[in-house]
Amino acid sequence: MKLSLNWLKDYIDPKLSTDALIERLTMAGLEVEAVTVGADTVLELEITPNRPDCLSILGLAREIGAITGKVVKFPKIKNLKMDSRFRGNDKTTKFIQIENKKDCSRYIGTLIRDVQVKDAPREMKQRLASMGINAINNAVDITNFVLMETGQPLHAFDYDKLAGGKIIVRRARAGESLVTLDGVERKLDSSILVIADAQKPVAIAGIMGGRDTQITAGTKNILLESAHFDMGLIRRASRALGLRSDSSYRFERNVNFDGVLTGANRATDLLAQLTGGKLSGRGEILFKAKSAAVQIKVKIADIESLLGLKVMPGKAKAWLARLGFKVTVKAGALMVVPPGNRADIGQDVDAIEEIARMIGFDRLPSRLPVVNARNIPVDNRPRRIKEHIRRVLMAGNVDEIITHSMINSKALAKSNMADIKAARIFNPLSQDQELLRPSMLPSMLQAAVTNINRGQKDLRFFEIGKRYFVDGEKETLGILLAGRRHDDWRASKKEQVGISDLKGLCQRIFHEIGISPVYETNQFPVLDPACAASITLNGKYLGSFGRVDRKILNNWDIKNQEIYYAGLHLDEIYPLPGKVLKYRPISEFPAIVRDVSLAVKKEIPYRKIEEICLKHGGDILRSVDFIEQYLGDKIQPGCKGLVFSCLYQSNTRTLREDEVTAAHERILQALTRDLAVIRR
Length: 680
Fold this sequence. Notes:
By secondary structure, the chain is an alpha+beta fold. The protein is 30% helix and 26% strand. The radius of gyration is 40 Å and the shape is elongated.
């Protein structure tokens, strides 16, 4: 909003230098962004969307008057209510029709006859030029002058060019178009509100008039429009047409309902003075009755608490009264009624902000807020479990990532999850953010694709995030592995990660938490049926892991590379009671490690082998560690090759070779007897 200081002085002289005025305005919440100095000094202010009352010279004069305590001299506007004295012989009081009262709640049409269209007075043209508006003729310049002075948009039609002498406020119809004042033909549709005569649209409501009914030197009779249009409707039409104007800028922010009559009367008075025209008739349609004034109770104690200083009730009342508020003081509180042009005032904090503006934001005391220290409960199991997970995974060289919670339906379909009913965003910023993810997999595959396309194929990352459903949300851990197992320069062979690596990470996590779930082969829509497993404990499903199905990888354009993924349901894990981990001293005596190579039937899980080893190994068997699995032509049909190691150790003595051999032999015999394994 531009503010001409020469124009401002027509209503108020703040008796301040330009720099001092800028400082006072800025500290009152009306930030001055730029200053233009010439024949006139013009300030450019940043007006927030909730303050349409400041989008006029009089509105800013009122603010300056309140800040400085100076009196504002408002222009004298004649009260031109509809009266028989103004109707003459014209029957023009019913020439306005409004099809939808929600689109236009108030419309005043004033007919002025026998006008003389010529240049506006030099002073008026100077005032408009300072605001960046070109002078056209006295009639059009008056509508622009009143717009800038009062903030009420107006439009003047050549009445003789209106077919049927009618004004119809309606939605545009299919196939209609209009050449606007800028000479551009605009295609219209039913989302756009227009002003029409008996035959066609003649203006785009609240935005711009039409060329065919514009005021020219030959105009003799003027129909002056002053209206209140729906702010949302004007904003959407302006965007759809790519057309903005000073009028639409104000309508989009909701003009003052009472200002419709004020603007019409002010412009009518000026038209009568400067064009010599005679008021011949006026028609008004009013759907919205004037709402009752809302009284707000503002406690003095709340004012002092929020602003941090002592406030006298009399001063607070005076500050608000300067802004047009009606204020009474009752028992330590102010009873405040906002003026009609302040629709942004709805609760006590809004009135307190007005007092702060009058004091000046720079004059409010600055102090740090008091923060009461509070201990976080130690026994917060979800937090501790997440800390354990991060510690285990980062120690395993797995990086934590954060991905978007919002995805698109294509990502869901590519991940073979199109049948899942996902929570949909009502007003997404883009199509890529139309859904809340029901699974972590699409987000993590997108991260994998981004890395692979940039040459980084060795991936080890995890995310603790949420999955979203129509009926709620669930916290989940997602782990993704791909590429080489370790980037070890000493290794002659670069081994690829496999399901064993993923299972090992899951085992470490559960060991750290203190629970021992069961791992069983299973099938899932997103995982390869030949390489997938579920994780359960006492019949409760905790998650799954495995190799992502090749069809899904092809959908994501991931070629020649396998992806392994695990999803653990943390909301199911948090309530599980964990075992108390106790410290066990490190043995001072040497350990003996024996490797075992077996041919095992494919359907036998490694878990059963581990259970038999621990059962028959006795006290000296400390651990059974998986090394590798082999599938190839050198193994018996229907079997798989497994290699694992058994570690024997005692805390009290050095183990003898014969007792280790005896324990190891018991294990091998039990495996052969119970599982029919073949030693290799």
